[in-house]
Amino acid sequence: MRHLFAIARPSYRVGVxxxxxxxARLHARPSPKHKSIxxxxxxxxxxxxxxxxxxxxxxxxxxxxxxxxxxxHYNPEQITAIEAGEAAIDPQDLIEQGAIREDGMRxxxxxxxxxxxxxxxxxxxxxxxxxxPNLRFKTEDELAQDLTDWVxxxxxxxxxxxxxxxxxxxxxxxxxxxxxxxxxxxLAPEIPKLDILKRTTVGKEDIEPSVQRLMRxxxxxxxxxxxxxxxxxxxxxxxxQTRLGKIQSIYYLTVAGNGKGLLxxxxxxxxEPEEARAQARNSAIRNMQPIPMYEGRTIFGDVKGKVSxxxxxxxxxxxxxxxxxxxxxxxxxxxxxIQDMAARVTRSRNHMNxxxxxxxxxxxxxxxxxxxxxxxxxxxxxRKVYYGGNV
Length: 391
Fold this sequence. Notes:
Layout: H1 47-53, H2 64-70, H3 76-87, H4 91-96, E1 136-137, H5 140-152, H6 160-169, E2 173-174, H7 177-181, H8 209-218, H9 222-227, E3 229-242, E4 245-257, E5 262-270, H10 273-286, E6 289-290, E7 303-307, E8 310-316, E9 323-324, H11 327-336, E10 341-347, H12 351-363, H13 368-375, H14 379-383
Parallel strand pairs: 9-10
Antiparallel strand pairs: 1-2, 3-4, 4-5, 5-6, 7-8, 8-10
């Protein structure tokens, strides 16, 4: 009988678990399009397998039917060259060299010994005899004499090839010829660069018109503009009351810098947020100015800046102190590359005025050179640091 106080419980499916990862389950993953191919399947692990893989049928000469098929794609000279190249290869080499060695002297990795890797392999350097301590460049008179001699011996109808041969064979130095053709260098070989890491060149037609105008105004290229650090510090909506009603816009205050001493502040306002952000970003990059930094990490002394009712005090700090201040000034220091500094905001803490007062304070620093010039002193006498600080 059914119990009157029984509680109906939902039925759960057995084996259903909540996934804790975004990866697909093993049974739901698609199988690879191409299966893995092992060296043993291709007969590359032993000479016996290689012999069974290469038969006499594969090494026989071309038949008349095959030659007629090749003649549709190659001319008779090319077919003759193909036959001569195949005849020059010993079939035994295909069996022995095409397989992986199994003896005890084999290396534990696959390598192409016909290519010298600049990092792993020992570089091949020119002999020491190629060095010439008395090597010097030719003078203008000696180069002119070489050109005069070539003009005298020049054929009646010279071609572009003759001029290229003269440019290639003419020496630019006086001394050993080997010292110029194949000089001995003790520098380490260049590390190879991966093609996948190379940044593709951006054409001018792929750059936005606003960025092209910014490139003309600032002198920076598209890559440098893309690498600038840009941060939105202040954003709010504004309303303009007209006789037709209220017109709403959005306002952005942006700071930009390269992390190496350049800092700029820009403002943008538009009805569209994307357009306002672009205006503020371009204005900040356009207004970037160099910020003086001591040792590339902090400011020169304590400075103050005041905009309206907001007052900002910036104080220099020793190495390792860090940037200890509020978030707006912290982001400005990151964009400028300042690593050690303390700041205090007194009176009003309006965000817009704080950013402008901080920039004003950073630009009002007095450099030691200016102070020494104003006092009529030398820089070492002003700093009182002589002989690297030993006196």
